[in-house]
Design a protein that fits this description.
The protein is mostly helical. The chain has nine helices and no strands. The chain has helices at about 5-10, 15-35, 50-70, 80-95, 100-105, 115-145, 155-160, 170-200, 210-259. Helix 3 packs antiparallel against helix 6, helix 3 packs antiparallel against helix 9 and helix 6 runs parallel beside helix 9. The radius of gyration is 21 Å and the shape is elongated. The relative contact order is 0.14.
Length: about 260
């Protein structure tokens, strides 16, 4: 996934290829070590599919489609033309006033070339739509497939290694609070990130979206991070609901035995 843009698009610097290969190897080592260890580190829901599978498929879809769209400007083929046309159709739907995609376009400098503006518009639309589809797929798994009950017992320690159930307060209340907070932040981030980046351009060196690889990873981060947070919020609320159901069932059993 990390090598896809570098393999199909030109590299802007002489050391760009080495850096990308190093990051890809590092990501492989971290993922392999996490999923082959009995003790969790920081990756959540590793034993509760399809959370991380959907995240990976969603991010891979963004990277692949954006790579094909950017490649259309350098070496157009039938596949790249089809991808760009599909992205243009999606942009015509999701790019409306006050939408996150429109805010991304407005983030560009006033003197930006029209081809760059159109490319950013299409790339942002595809990334945003892929994020929405990923969220909808997980919502289907939760509401209709009963995640995570179909995967056996849910182990809080291995699936939520950063959550400490012994740290004061009721577990259900904390899970519900964290879930709602993640969903709210995930909904707001696509609107806040372009505004913050626009404000920082007057202080720091602005990000050059004319570089295709920079454009791909910026759009993927802008769309994937909020989607991942919303999915985490949905999962946390679902776990809190399961704990409430378990407590209610246990309370009913105790009442029956006492009677």
């Amino acid at each position: 996934m990390m090598l896809t843009p570098a393999l199909y698009l030109p590299v802007s610097s002489t050391n760009g290829t080495e850096v990308i290969v190093f990051l890809a190897i590092l990501a492989f080592i971290l993922t392999f070590a996490e999923y082959n260890s009995a003790f969790p580190s920081f990756i959540e829901f590793r034993d509760a599919p399809p959370v991380n599978r959907l995240r990976f498929v969603g991010l891979m879809s963004m990277v692949t489609f954006l790579t094909l769209i950017c490649k259309n400007a350098y070496a157009p083929t039938e596949m790249t033309r089809f991808s760009y046309a599909m992205g243009l159709s999606v942009a015509n739907v999701v790019d409306f006033p006050y939408s996150p995609v429109r805010l991304i376009v407005l983030m560009l400098p006033a003197d930006a070339a029209q081809p760059l503006v159109e490319l950013v518009r299409v790339a942002a639309s595809i990334a945003y739509m892929a994020a929405l589809v990923t969220i909808a797929s997980f919502a289907y798994a939760v509401k209709l497939r009963g995640w995570p009950t179909g995967n056996g017992a849910f182990n809080v320690w291995t699936n939520l290694p950063l959550f400490d159930p012994t740290k004061g307060g009721d577990v259900v209340t904390r899970l519900q609070r964290d879930g709602r907070l993640n969903i709210c932040i995930g909904i707001l981030l696509p609107f806040l990130i372009p505004a913050v980046m626009k404000l920082l351009t007057n202080i720091l060196l602005p990000i050059s979206l004319s570089n295709p690889q920079t454009l791909i990873w910026t759009m993927c981060a802008w769309a994937f991070l909020p989607a991942s947070m919303i999915m985490r919020g949905m999962a946390t609320l679902r776990i809190a609901g399961l704990i409430v159901e378990k407590r209610r069932a246990y309370s009913t059993t105790e009442s029956t035995q006492t009677a």
